Amino acid sequence: MSHKGPYNAYVSAVGHYFPDKVIPNSYYESYLDTTDEWIKTRTGISERRFLEPNQPTSFMAIRAAQMVLEKRGISAEELDAIIITTVTPDMFYPATAVIVADAIGAKNAFGFDLSAACSGFIFGLATAIQFVQCGTYKKVLIIGADKMSCLADMSDRNNCVLFGDGAAAFLLEPTEDKTIGIIDQILHVDGSGKDSLYQLGGGSLNPPTHETVDKKMHYIYQEGKTVFKAAVKGMADISAEMMEKHNLKPEDVAYLVPHQANMRIIQATADRMGVGLDKVMININKYGNTTSATIPSCVSEYYYDGKIKKGDNLILTSFGAGYTWGSILLKWAI
Ligand code: COA
Hints:
Layout: E1 8-17, E2 21-24, H1 25-29, H2 36-43, E3 47-50, H3 57-72, E4 81-85, H4 96-104, E5 110-114, H5 120-133, E6 140-147, E7 165-175, E8 181-189, E9 197-198, H6 210-214, E10 221-222, H7 224-245, E11 255-258, H8 263-273, H9 284-287, H10 294-304, E12 313-320, E13 324-331
Parallel strand pairs: 4-5, 4-6, 11-12
Antiparallel strand pairs: 1-7, 2-3, 6-7, 8-13, 9-10, 12-13
Bound molecules: coenzyme A.
The site of coenzyme A has 19 residues, from helix 2, helix 7 and strand 12.
């Protein structure tokens, strides 16, 4: 993609929110045939956070949004748009963006939800960029938020240990400096993975009935090994493609920011790019797979830890259900 808009979009503020309740691996040891050792070595996850059952995804999205506004020093009324990427909206409709806009007082914004599973934030960011690059909107908030604890079958050791709850957000603004901000994006969908990772019940194909509940069709179904293999190839290929396209050597990349589904997928991607793990943002150990929140929460945590500096090249890369996959090259501007 080479964009033709008059502006570049840059990330002017970031924020994140994770629930207080920590679920260590030992929790699953207490009732499933699993061990802390298995979970850590096969996934890289030590613990994750869970919302309370009565708290919806918007609870986290609101807090991530408020952190962004506070850090940028602006009021919610200055926002032009709010995009929320999620597979766990509060309700099918209205969009969770509506609930968040109302809660934070974004009276002058429009907004919508976008669904692309674990590539949600990358696809959402790619969408948000367009509004800013063309000059139509000046302050677009993009929030990745998911309450995966409500979709995981807590009796299935293959799945429940992998996921957690979280939210994180970027504020995008325009700049006339074409050398900074979001530089490029590569995005893909193909249906080759549609039978390997899905939630069968609850949509128009299988509206909720007693039977869909009895058959556990409202939970995540995942063929772990199949998805794992596709993710290793997809994430590694697209990250390497982004480097080649921009003639970037490993030393030119400050950070790879990979979707956090499994530490072994992250390692394989870094190996393919030729970068060491010191150049990879990682928080899967603390939070597990939070779907749309993984990438922005890594960036937000590393930024407030003082680990990102102006001019750094970040390569954000995701892979998820569908399959969906994508990569964004971002030159840090704040
Ligand atoms: N504790 C102990 N054993 C477990 C387990 C757990 N929590 N979960 C699965 N196992 C068992 C399986 O039942 C299977 O046993 P079997 O061989 O007797 O049938 C065995 O471990 C599979 O082990 P392994 O071959 O090492 O699995 P793996 O390397 O594929 O790792 C996942 C399993 C789920 C961690 C991995 O496949 C994965 O992360 N997949 C999805 C990644 C992803 O990208 N997801 C979504 C993108 S958003």
